[in-house]
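Q: what does this look like with flavin mononucleotide bound?
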Amino acid sequence: MNDSTLIAAEQSNLDVHRRFAVAPMMELSDRHFRYLARLLSRHSLLYTEMLTSKAIIHGDREYLLGTNDVDHPVVLQIGGSDPAEMAEAAFIGQSWGYDEVNINVGCPSDRVQSGRFGACLMAEPQTVADCVRAMQNAVSIPVSVKCRLGIDRDDSYEALEQFVRQVADAGCSVFIVHARKAWLDGLSPKENRTIPPLRYPYVYRLKEALPELHITINGGIETWDDVQTHLRYVDGVMSGRKAYYTPGFLGRADQTVFSDLPDPLHDISDAAALAVVARQYAQYVQSWVDKGIRATALTRHIIALYHDMPGARLWRRHLSENATRCSDVPQLVEDALQHVIKLPGAQSA
Ligand SMILES: Cc1cc2nc3c(=O)[nH]c(=O)nc-3n(C[C@H](O)[C@H](O)[C@H](O)COP(=O)(O)O)c2cc1C
């Protein structure tokens, strides 16, 4: 197989998983959250938090890039705009076992703008294209781009299509579009995730205009009905906040979106099934606590496990109040579970 056939094969394999992806989220989608996410969904495509190309090249790689075996398929998101650096970072990512590398063209923070990457690159399609070309020459895994609809007043559909065409011509065939523009001046990153209105039709139209590209839609997805609706128009759906803050939602991904895959159906969204996940995750946390890592750095990811379910407040409170001093995580989780599940043999009230 030559390189381009290899890339095509990798791509079509990942395309199945791209139907539902969990978004890159700084300070949230670390390796520990991805471990939890994988317990909830075997097939969803997972993303890392954004890492800058400089950090990947010069930083502590085990800390930044270390993954768990169960992570796969997992995409490393890279922030940067220097093609040579981006290529080097992509190569390092591939050698650490990532299944794909993704360029961040969506983050609007000041820090990112001063480094000339993230959403401000929507105005520089040639730079993004140069990065794609250099990265794709350095790796055999796919290189994808996550972008916005546009920035500031430059937010016409035509400008979006022009951006995507130019980057696609450089060899990128996978785009994740956060379906709102970013205001680079005047809105915080958080406001930029809520204030500019969502415009899903732009993304549908993009897929219609460029059917050969794999297009994933992102932004404001709240229900599995939303997901199914989007999948009628585009190839994939990416969820960020809903997947993180309502893990029971993610627990339905395999049954809802991947039910045609050979593994047994997997629906972990009820309280008892989430308890199985909590117990497995507790064993995982314990293995890190035994290595000297604070339990709270990992238990924070299960605080929302029972979001909106009976007993959720007490579950959260038990974990928050007791995780700091905890050395026996399975016991901590077992005690917290008393608030949310009826244990076998327990007296009903
Ligand atoms: C806390 C947080 C951190 C984020 N960090 C990143 C990031 O590192 N890279 C990125 O491309 N997007 C980042 N995003 C944006 C998300 O990937 C996603 O595009 C956005 O939240 C919209 O999707 P949602 O409505 O499903 O949350 C972040 C979002 C949140 C909430």
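Residues 161 and 206 are 6 Å apart (CA to CA). The pocket of flavin mononucleotide is lined by residues 23-26, 28, 49-50, 77, 104, 106-107, 146, 178, 193, 218-221, 239-242 (CB under 6 Å).
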